[in-house]
Write a structure and sequence with these properties.
The complex is a heterodimer. Chain A has no helices and 12 strands. Chain A has strands at 3-5, 10-14, 19-21, 24-26, 32-38, 44-50, 56-58, 64-68, 73-78, 87-94, 103-104, 108-113. In chain A, strands 2, 5, 6, 10, 11 and 12 form a 6-stranded mixed beta sheet that branches. Chain A is globular, with a radius of gyration of 13 Å. In chain B, 0% of the residues lie in helices and 59% in strands. In chain B, strand 4 (32-39) and strand 5 form a beta hairpin. In chain B, the strands form 2 sheets. In chain B, strands 2, 4, 5, 6, 9, 10 and 11 form a 7-stranded mixed beta sheet that branches. Chain B is built from no helices and 11 strands. By secondary structure, chain B is an all-beta fold. Chain B starts with a strand and ends with a strand. Classes of the chains: A mainly beta, B mainly beta. Chain A binds chain B through residues 4, 6, 9, 32, 34, 42-46, 49, 51, 90, 92, 94, 97-107, and chain B through 32, 34, 36, 38, 41-46, 49, 51, 57, 59, 90, 92, 94, 96-101, 103-106.
Chain lengths: 114, 112
């Protein structure tokens, strides 16, 4: 069975500071990993995904994540936070590229202070 | 382009009342359709998915049901709502070949 753990339901950073949102997964098969973002009053959007190949994945809005198999982690980072990054972020795992099922973490709410 | 419509955006219902949430997709045919629920502190939970008309798979036992009467229509229903049905419900679709999910704008359901 697969599962996702997001450490920290709330993360607060100052504008310009590093953003680090943690995600650890459990999977019995090579996982496909995703980060989704939900801005206030909007639907979910895909930030980035890891399927195969390069373990450092770049997404939209300056975010990136690194797949570390030895640590079963897929942490999301951004070098410099912007006020517009305030949102809820979800890590997700699936078993295959075409799977019908995404298993989501519980989400991390990011606050950015001026 | 593909769009997904979900309504209503907010809903307040008394315990024991029926529920019907509707989701329609445009710009694609034979999509895979999904209902997710986001309950406080529990993340997004897959409730139902459908790979075709009349084909519904349930992921968790619950007080809800789903139907797909048309190719691009997915309905979430309940005969009698419970307090625990409160939450944020998201409809989503996938084109088929890729894994990217497109989400609707969601329905905030409060059962009182």
């Amino acid at each position: 069975a697969q599962s996702v753990t997001q450490l920290g339901s709330h993360v607060s950073v100052s504008e310009g500071a590093l953003v680090l949102l943690r995600c650890n997964y459990s999977s019995s098969v090579p996982p496909y990993l995703f980060w989704y973002v939900q801005y206030p009053n909007q639907g979910l959007q895909l930030l980035l995904k890891y399927t195969t190949g390069a373990t450092l994945v770049k997404g939209i809005n300056g975010f990136e994540a690194e797949f570390k198999k030895s640590e079963t982690s897929f942490h999301l980072t951004k070098p410099s936070a912007h006020m517009s990054d305030a949102a809820e972020y979800f890590c997700a795992v699936s078993r295959s590229y075409n799977t019908d099922k995404l298993i989501f973490g519980t989400g991390t709410r990011l606050q950015v202070f001026p | 382009s593909q769009t997904i419509h979900q309504w209503p955006a907010t809903l307040v219902q008394p315990v024991g009342s029926p529920l019907s949430l509707e989701c329609t997709v445009e710009g694609t045919s034979n999509p895979n359709l999904y209902w997710y629920r986001q309950a406080a502190g529990r993340g997004l939970q897959l409730l139902f998915y459908s790979v075709g008309i009349g084909q519904i798979s349930s992921e968790v036992p619950q007080n809800l049901s789903a139907s797909r009467p048309q190719d691009r229509q997915f309905i979430l229903s309940s005969k009698k709502l419970l307090l625990s049905d409160s939450g944020f419900y998201l409809c989503a679709h996938r084109r088929g070949a890729g894994e990217k999910l497109f989400f609707g704008s969601g329905t905030q359901l409060s059962v009182l």
